[in-house]
Specification:
- The chain is an all-beta fold.
- The chain contains no helices and 12 strands.
- Strands 1, 2, 3, 4, 5, 6, 7, 8, 9, 10, 11 and 12 form a 12-stranded antiparallel beta sheet that branches.
């Protein structure tokens, strides 16, 4: 890869390719312009300069790279195909494009259960929406467990900030074999939404 900086502008180009075998090639292409003030003098905000123009294309990316950004879930895995165009500034980026997750898997920290996930995400400015996304139990836990997720997440910079999500379906949410000392209730429990589904609006700190 390469980075060239001049006149408050960084021209970047990275192409990372990793292949263990022919059918598992992982490729990341990151190319474009990142405006940033790296002058040695005092600057009020080095990242507020408009004019970012960066293209990101990914093939067979590890979804686990998002693990640190989502504290509610752990052990994130899966393959991500993505094509995203970033504009705006580093302080207030805008995202446009789409991504598709396959063979997704994660552990929900509140109940210790493992879930599978798959589907598509659309990026539109500071909004990420879920036109076709589902979460389901592993077959050995509860074969009928399936929830379809809709709605959107608003980004603050590069971090998820405000949630407007909906869910419809049923999932096993408690399991006898994963009992721990912090749980007030234990056993096998399946939770199902009503016909209108379940809605979550707010931030991770405040919800309704």
């Amino acid at each position: 890869g390469s980075v060239h900086y001049a006149d408050k502008r960084a021209d970047i180009e990275f192409n990372l390719v990793h292949s263990i075998r022919q059918d598992s090639i992982k490729n990341i292409l990151l190319k474009g312009i990142v405006p940033i003030d790296l002058s040695l003098t005092n600057v009020e905000n080095r990242t507020a300069i408009e004019g970012m123009d960066v293209a990101l294309e990914g093939t067979n990316l590890q979804f686990g790279v998002f693990d640190p950004l989502i504290p509610e879930i752990d052990q994130i895995a899966g393959m991500l195909q993505a094509k995203i165009h970033c504009t705006g500034s580093l302080l207030q980026p805008q995202f446009h494009g789409d991504a598709h997750l396959s063979d997704g898997k994660f552990v929900f920290s509140m109940n210790g259960m493992t879930y599978n996930a798959e589907g598509s995400l659309l990026f539109d400015g500071t909004r990420i929406s879920f036109p076709a996304f589902s979460i389901h139990n592993q077959n050995q836990d509860y074969g009928n467990g399936l929830v379809r997720v809709g709605g959107s997440i608003s980004m603050l910079g590069f971090v998820p900030h405000e949630y407007h999500l909906s869910a419809n379906g049923e999932l096993m949410v408690l399991q006898e074999k994963i009992r721990n000392s912090n749980q007030l209730f234990y056993g096998d429990l399946v939770a199902a939404t009503g016909t209108d589904g379940l809605h979550f609006d707010g931030t991770s700190e405040r919800s309704r």
